[in-house]
Amino acid sequence: MKDVDILAHINHLIAEERDLRTLLASGSISSHEENHRIRSIEEALDQAWDLLRQRRAHREFGEDPNAAEPRPVDEVEEYRQ
Q1: Which among 5, 37, 53, 59 would be 20 to 30 A from 45, CA to CA?
Q2: How far is CA 29 from CA 4, 34, 40, 45, 52, in A?
Q3: CA 45, 46, 50, 53 torsion: positive or negative?
Q4: Computed over its alpha carbons, how large is the radius of gyration of the chain?
Q5: How far apart (Å, rounded) are the C-alpha atoms in residues 70 and 35?
Q6: Could you tell me which residues come within 8 angstroms of residue 34 by beta carbon, excluding any fewer than 6 positions away?
Q7: Looking at residue 63, what DSSP letter applies?
Q8: CA-to-CA distance for 69 and 15, rounded, in angstroms?
Q9: Res. 40 pLDDT band, cuts 50 70 90
């Protein structure tokens, strides 16, 4: 996966989060369901940002950025940028 693909995935996740907030505001979904789905989106965002950071680090040290691999959610969850 290239940087541009990861960024497109991030944009999709952000749009999905906005849609969920709109659905909650309109009463189409419960706050419990919204919280559960938002949590999944946040985990996926954590992984995507982590992968971009890994790719950048590989490039900076003259390594192949394609060697970067997604890490498990529990490893990158709530990673502070």
Answers
A1: 59
A2: 32, 7, 16, 22, 32
A3: positive
A4: 15
A5: 24
A6: 20, 21, 23, 24
A7: S
A8: 24
A9: very high
Instruction: Give the predicted TM-score (pTM) of the model.
Output: 0.82
Structure tokens at 51: 């992968």
Instruction: For residues 49 and 11, give the distance between their C-alpha atoms in angstroms, rounded to a whole number.
Output: 12
The owner of tokens 């502070």 is 80
- Tell me phi and psi for residue 51, to 5 degrees: -65, -40
SS3 at position 79? coil
Structure tokens at 15: 């749009």
Q: How confident is the model at residue 74 (pLDDT cuts 50, 70, 90)?
A: confident
Q: What is the DSSP string of 52-66?
A: HHHHHHHHHTTS-GG
Query: Looking up tokens 């996966």, which residue turns up?
Result: 1
